[in-house]
Amino acid sequence: MIWLTVTLFILLVLVAGRKGINIFISLGGSFFALMAVMMLIADEFNPLVVGILFAVGLVFLAIYPNTSNGHIRQSALASSLLVLLGLLAITLVAVHFSFSQGFSIEDTDEIEQFLLPIGISFPQIQVVVLLFSALGAVAEASIAISSGVWEIILYQPQISDQQLLHAGLEIGRKNIATALNTLLFGFFGSYLTLGLWLIQLHYTPVTILNNAILGSAVLELLLGILGVIAVAFLTNYYIIWQRHHDKSLKADK
Amino acid sequence: MVAAGLWLLIVCLSQRNYWSQNVATVERVQIVHQQTVQDQYHNQDTQITQRLTLRLLTGKYRHRYLVRDNTYYQSQANTNQYRVGCHLILSNNHSLRHLTIISPKRDGILLILLGIVLISLLGLLKIHGLRAVLSAVLNCGLFAGLLIIATQWHNQHILFLTILLTLLVTPLTLILIFGYSRQTLISVGATWLSTFFAVIVSTIILQLSNNQGIHYETLNYGIQPFQWIFLAETLLGVLGACMDETTDITASVYQLLQEQPQITKHQLFTSGMHVGREIIGPLINILFYLFLAELIPIIILYLRNGNTLQFSLSRTLTLGYTQTVISAIGIVLAVPLTAFLAASLLRSKNL
Predict the structure, then answer these.
(1) Mutate to test the interface with B, among A118, A129, A138, A234 (most CBs of B within 10 A)
(2) Chain B residue whose CA is closest to A177
(3) Which residue segments constitute the domains of chain B, with CATH numbers given?
(4) A210/B287 touch (CB, cutoff 8 Å), yes or no
């Protein structure tokens, strides 16, 4: 594990130079942030409050090292945060109706040694899990789209809002299609064992449809895709709004 | 229109399974017992028993009422608190008296969300959305096929099957989404190369360090054979991210070549590298957050049961961490590989 991590660091520096070091540091930061989230929740801080505060922090951590100028950063941050706020609302509803929190019978091997009534709300923890798993994809899409759109503005400062929106949505479409696949294969990779297990148990279709772990996995995937679609559109509209309201941009013209 | 039709089809197919299953709705909830419990780690929780009045919605007892008790803990780690209006799945016994609650019906909200996703994909993205949805459906089908064949062979050839799937899925997905062109072919080649390269390099490093610190036995559900399934999972995880990346790099190198046909091969390579550097950070983040988020509940459970953070991590995190680092290595390796392939192959007239 240590050697793999070292290899990753060396490769990052070889391929991306200084930026590689920044990426590595931000990954380390995210790792410790997630550890902090787990420890704070285990220390009986409210999971939702901890989750929301750290989600905002992680958005900054994901976007800062990967954006190079202020405009790109601002539009990526604002649109990611807005989308996460919307996702939070959807997640609260979805967890309430899907009963996908915590552990299920299939986890028995892993959890039978433990006492489960630990006094911390697992539905709230589930909301945090879903929010965090969508966060990476939302941040990626917002960065890609705002960099693309601001590059168009840089080369054609006089472009009309309509044309800009058209071009921006084109970038968004491409991004959604590829992000969909990244999430889908990430999901396949994570749940290969679960799939093999479900088939080996000879479950009926009804049991599979209502399996807690699978439900939670599908929820994760759907929320991620929804987040990417929302951010693709929001980033575009936000940049147009930004163009009209940002004083430094007006001074340029 | 297409979206709504597709969604209705999925809803019908999934709900058809319920014809022969007893499903009930909760009509009334009454709390009959409540008590505070404490364990040796001073975890305090409330155990609540609720009396549910259920009305059956399907089966031969349709519209009949029955009363069942449900005991849950306030924290709901593996128990559920039911509310009025919830749908529950009951066992399929022959007598009304012996029906027991199996689980809540979970798929309703998932289908609603799926509907929203499908309608926004097809409604907002039109033909692009349709292509993306088609490729997703196709990939899910192939993945399900992989699972079924692998189980038939008792998981013995899982890695071989996954490699086959990788070889097949990459061109199918990319051609479906981006259309057939030399650009797409180069992306396919680059994806293959970087995915396999990452997995091979990592396997060698793992072998050289004797799998130090990795607990293969902690693989979920204790499924055998650990190592091959682990590698297969890793391969799939790298694949999605690499496809995303290689298409981005080839697309921008292609665009540059269109704008400046006289540009040298070296300049093309540099520009490919530049685009690549911009996207590796966010892409690694996607996989990293996915992997870390899934660990939150189990690690909290370890911590609340009197374990140290270090022990909890060693039991839960090593496999996911290794997989994520291997994926990250693949994502980084894909940059020079794709930039090189795109710079040297895009211009030549025949491929």
Answers:
(1) A118
(2) B132
(3) 23-105 (no CATH), 109-150 (no CATH), 153-345 (1.20.1640)
(4) no
B97: helix, strand or coil? helix
Residues 6+ apart with CB under 8 A from A246: A71
A247 confidence band (pLDDT: 50, 70, 90): low
d(CA A191, CA A187): 6
The pTM of the whole model exceeds 0.80: yes
Beta partners for residue B55, in sequence order: B25, B65
Exposure letters B10-24 (e unless 16+ CB within 10 A, then b): ebeebeebbeebbbb
pLDDT in tens, A35-62: 999 999 999 899 999 999 999 999 999 9
Q: Looking at the domain covering A53-103+120-252, what would its CATH class be?
A: mainly alpha
Q: Does A202 lie at the interface with B, CB-CB under 8 angstroms?
A: no
CB contact under 8 A, A27 and B288: yes
pLDDT one-digit tens code per residue, A161-209: 899 998 898 888 888 888 888 889 988 888 888 888 888 888 888 888 8
Query: Does residue B9 carry a pLDDT above 60?
Result: yes
Chains A & B: contacts with CB separation below 8 Å: 375
Q: Are the Cβ atoms of A174 and B128 closer than 8 angstroms?
A: yes
The span from the first CA to the last CA of chain A, in angstroms, equals 53
Cβ(B178)–Cβ(B191) below 8 Å: no
Q: Which residue of A has its CA nearest to B16?
A: A206
Residue B225: cis peptide before it, omega within 30 degrees of 0: yes
**Which of B120, B280, B301 is the best residue to mutate to test the A interface, defined by the most A CB atoms within 10 Å of its own CB?**
B301
ipTM attached to this prediction: 0.90
CA-to-CA distance for A207 and A212, rounded, in angstroms?
9
For the segment B19-25, the average pLDDT, to the nearest whole number, is 85
Angle between helix axes A161-200 and A122-155 (nearest 10 degrees) is 150
CA separation, residue B123 to residues A178, B116, B117, B120, B175 (Å): 18, 10, 10, 5, 22
Q: Which amino acid is at B136?
A: A
